[in-house]
Amino acid sequence: MKASATTEAQESLRLSDILARHETELLSQWIDEQMSASTLRRDLMKESELREQSEQFLSLLRQATRSENLKDTTRPEWEGVREFLIDLSGSRAAQGFTPSETATFIFSLRAPLTELLQRADAPPASVRAATVLLDKLGLFTFEGYQKSREAVISRQQQEMLELSTPVVRLFEGIVALPLIGTLDSARTQVVMENLLERIVETGAEIAIIDITGVPTVDTLVAQHLLKAVAAARLMGADCIISGIRPQIAQTIIHLGVDLQNVTTKANLADALRLALQKLGLTVGRKSEK
Amino acid sequence: MERIPILKMGDFLLVTIQVDMHDQMALALQDDLTERIVRTGARGVLIDISSLEIVDSFIGRMLGVIAGMSRVLDAETVVVGMQPSVAITLVELGLALTGVRTALNVEKGMKLLRAATGLADETNHAGERE
Amino acid sequence: MPANESKELPLRTDDDIVRMRQAVRSIAIETGLSLVDQTKLVTAASELGRNTRIYGGGGSVKIEKVDNGIRRGVRLTFEDHGTGIPNVELALKDGYTTGGGLGLGLGGSKRLCNEFEIDSRPGEGTRVMIARWKP
Question: What is the predicted ipTM?
């Protein structure tokens, strides 16, 4: 155990030493390698930017290898390298690079570094350790790329949720929630929370949930709707569900969902009429008065 | 023990719960309210729970008991200001508080009480439930 | 409180339950649970804490902040050395009570959480573990 730790430390220091002595040479070979790679995106990145990033990475790598630890890149000494790679893959993902194009940054360092080590008469074990290290860092850029894509997707999902759930005021004391598109359990929950918040904000006594634009309703979604109605009642507001399509009505009956305590109306206009009536308001033509 | 204050406003009693109540406090409030309804002949009770961060089954039961008790003593009870997150949780817990009248805020609760007790100077049935 | 750390509170008096609710709330906020999720967790804690105090004759709760890379959330473990629950299945049913309550405590708390585990032995005591995860 101790012996292997010592060899690892030696290899790490040797690598650091070689990196320091041949930095300029390695940098120019690496950049050549990157510039000639088939995955190069001249349209997305300038050579000067590439040079800057490569320089920065080599200097971070040199510092990290001085820590006498090559195997465990999760240790704090490697934090600088890790952060740099996360930033790099994140910004490349945002610029439109593919995962392979992004990973080429690290993988193209392999050939020049191996050559350099061999020329410096480094033992095969050293060369192998360096290769394993680069593989790890390469995979790390994949992960960073993936993570930043996921962050983009989840942000877009959130934005879509917010976009798709407008609660509109129809009249003093009446709000409406026109639902459009397929409702899944998560979306229904967000939509309902949003509705209840708006009821408090506007002081609306009646909320109309219009599901004309909803193609199907499953048991879970129907239950979320009913729970929202029950929650609104606890807060002191009434809900009317309007626009239940014939197929949905059938599903609801087949699923055995109990709509007994919920006011339903065929369409939004009928629901609004009922809401006005409940508030003691009447709407009529001027001439009839 | 700390007690929740009960204010008298005309024919109505007003209770604002602003502290995280422990069970004994809830029971004491139940007793105090009954006693005050009898002593003052109040026709309505308004309980403002807008500051409550949770309503568990114990507090839920207390609200139900107060509503039932006041009905026996010829007074109406309205619970106002329940937060959305509290309402969602209560529904999930399985507590529907049937028999308890609710309103969005104190103002609407007062209107509802006036209408329900026939002490109304204006007719407004907003939020009234059968 | 740093990730994966925990603290233990006694559940012997009414005041202990109020303190426990506040402790659970602040950890739920630290963990980043939404307001609705915080409320669900604190309400479940209140129900179970009351059970521990009344039916278990007092006990304790362990509050843990969990962040293991896969999931973030709060885990609570209630433990007492009371008489235990003879029939757990029955006790989980809504409306079943031996203490004059509404009988919503156990079943209701289960619905308010993502995870629910109960281990009760007559004469030895009861252990209930619940968890609420950040979606």
Answer: 0.88
